[in-house]
Write a structure and sequence with these properties.
The chain is an alpha+beta fold. The protein has one domain. It contains two helices and two strands, in the order H-E-E-H.
């Protein structure tokens, strides 16, 4: 088995386990706005937002 495929499969397994363990629905409140969603979705959303902001700041700095 190729080592890249093994790493991808291990990461996918980790993500599946993480999502299953964090399926609980939580309520998010911001000022007058509130919504309910899975804890895993909130964590992944903040991760991707942080990556996007870091990429944008790096891009603007190098420009």
């Amino acid at each position: 088995m190729d080592w890249k495929l093994a790493v991808i499969l291990a990461l996918l397994m980790f993500l599946i386990i993480f999502a299953v363990q964090n399926y609980e629905v939580v309520e998010i409140q911001v000022l007058f706005w509130s919504f309910q969603t899975s804890r895993a979705i909130i964590i992944f959303s903040t991760l991707f937002a942080g990556i996007a902001i870091g990429w944008l700041v790096s891009y603007l700095k190098n420009r």
